[in-house]
Amino acid sequence: MENSLLKQNDSHEEGVKNKFIAWWNGHEAEGSNESSLVQTEQNMENTLRKVSTNYINMLERIWGKGFLEPGYIDFNKKIFGLFTLNNSKTVLDVSCGLGGVSQNLSLEYEVWVDAFEENQILREEAFKNIASTKANSRIKIQPIDYADTFTFAAEKYHYAYSRDRLFTIQNKEQLFKEIHNALKKKGEFTFTDYILNKDIPMSDVDIENLSEAEDMPIYLYTQSQYEELATEVNMEMRNTKDYSAEYIELITLGWKKLEKELSAKDIKKELYPYILNEMEIWLYRYNALVNKKIKYVQILCQKKSD
Questions:
Q1: What is the pTM (predicted TM-score) of this model?
Q2: pLDDT tens track for 58-84
């Protein structure tokens, strides 16, 4: 960790693991060994990646209050700069997470947001985050299950968006169809997500490592697949912007910030195992981005006139 938390070789990755395990166990990294690493990881197996207060606290320490991923308020301004937002606009948030994006949009532009989230604990935390703000009356948080049949209100929204969630949703065809139906005439849908680079198979080693680290199925599309999908549901892909380089920097900055807090012993000990596990996920995302197996992009689609 002397240079960066995010390096592309196994020896550094193991060194990072050992240092975090050492901090967790209350001794210096030199005192840890492979057997203690394995034992510690086994002890953590049943708790990590489960959404809990500790897990949420850890994510917010890295990415900011109300956020599950890089790209705090400044980055979101770039993403939503394509929209004309004001208090007459209605917005569909496909996966609100902790509600940071919806809250920011509503406070900044006074838009009305219907925010959907699959995970009950995230919904509850999002509600708490928003309840004490002026955005409370303009945001409605609702449950949804993208693995089941779902629908949105017809022709209600001027805009729809998703931040970094589509790669985890298998039935993208249904999602795009429902978003199309939910948008008003010439309404727009934008999303940021990881996409496969051209000619990279899901069997690629970096993609397989990423899939295993995510601890859930992932369904990566190429840009051309999203374009075909948009066409199928009568939407036009109007703009695509590659933010990979900036996103890599945001990932690095988030972990450097956490590294400083760990070094200063400003983080509660119970968060250490969650940090270690989350680090593995971001290492594999980082590697896939740097090795150009995936890209991090923003795609803008518009509903066509009938």
A1: 0.84
A2: 888 888 888 989 988 889 889 998 899
Residue 237's DSSP bridge partners are 301
Answer for the pair 100, 75: CB distance below 8 angstroms, yes or no: no
Residue 306: CB atoms within 10 A of its CB come to 5
Structure tokens at 216: 């859930």
* DSSP sequence for the chain: --S-S--SSHHHHHHHHHHHHHHHHTS-GGG--HHHHHHHHHHHTTTTTS--HHHHHHHHHHH-TT-SSS--HHHHHHHGGGS---TT-EEEES--TTSHHHHHHHHHH--EEEEEES-HHHHHHHHHHHHTSTTGGGEEEEE--TTS-----TT-EEEEEEES-GGG-S-HHHHHHHHHHHEEEEEEEEEEEEEEPTT--TTSHHHHHHHHHHTS-----BHHHHHHHHHHTTEEEEEEEE-HHHHHHHHHHHHHHHHHHHHTT-S-GGGHHHHHHHHHHHHHHHHHHHTTSEEEEEEEEEEPP-
